[in-house]
Amino acid sequence: MSRGGLLSRLRSDRWMFVPIALLGLTVVTGAYALGHVSGGHFNPAVTLGLVAAKRFNPKDAGAYIVAQIVGGILAIAAIWAIVSGLPGGFTKEVGSLASNGYGTSGERDFYSLGAVLLAEAVLTFMFLIIILGATHKKASPAMGGLAIGLALTLIHLISIPISNTSVNPARSIAPAIFEGGDALKQVWAFILAPIVGAVLAGLVYGKLIASDND
């Protein structure tokens, strides 16, 4: 087992996915801290899903998506700088920065491409339905950030073994850029599937679920 991978050390014990999944709770803090400033978008799929639901101005989507991707890259750069201080050094390889993947790549064994595409699309679809419902004007405004963060935590608990969990193209693009190799070759799946799931959720929510728009 490579000593360079952040997740490779944990894959032998599935219970160790729990603390990783709890990182989804960072969305809770981010939503409450920045929701009043920008709406708290940290995910291009969420932005596009909100556009599809007519809850966000399409003219602003491009700037948001660029900021989300740049933010992801800066975050991975900071993580890389920190883990480079591991005793014995740090090896940059596929999976070392928790990139997403499908099939078998090196020491990683994920689900097949078809299964990963379906899981990412369905889970992102459900994530957007939760976001749209939790932020609707008839919902409790104080609880929206908590519901969204807990939803993301549950999604991570389900899908870390499947693909390392994306549901966020910015989260996938950043480590793929740093790792290269199969991570970069496979990142298209983690851009396409979440966006498809999010846009479908926005269309479904806007047409079939919501009685009126915010």
What can you tell me about this protein's structure?
The termini are far apart. This protein has helices spanning 17-21, 26-38, 44-52, 58-83, 113-134, 144-163, 169-179, 181-209; strands at 104-105, 108-109. It has a single domain, classed as Glycerol uptake facilitator protein (Up-down Bundle). A hairpin with a 2-residue loop joins strand 1 and strand 2 (108-109). The chain has 214 residues and is mainly alpha-helical. A two-stranded antiparallel sheet has the order 1-2. The protein is globular and about 55 Å long. 63% of the residues lie in helices and 2% in strands.
Topology summary:
Layout: H1 17-21, H2 26-38, H3 44-52, H4 58-83, E1 104-105, E2 108-109, H5 113-134, H6 144-163, H7 169-179, H8 181-209
Antiparallel strand pairs: 1-2
Largest sheet: 2 strands, antiparallel
Proportion of helical residues: 55-70%
Question: What order do the helices and strands follow?
Answer: HHHHEEHHHH
> What number is the mean pLDDT?
82
* CATH superfamily heading: Glycerol uptake facilitator protein
CATH top level is: Mainly Alpha
Q: Report strand order across the widest sheet.
A: 1-2
Q: Give the helix/strand class.
A: mainly alpha
Strand content: under 5%
Would you tell me which CATH topology applies? Glycerol uptake facilitator protein
Which regions have little confidence, pLDDT < 50, spanning 5+ residues? Answer: 1-12
Write down the domain tally.
1
End-to-end gap: 50 Å
Q: Multimeric state of these chains?
A: single chain
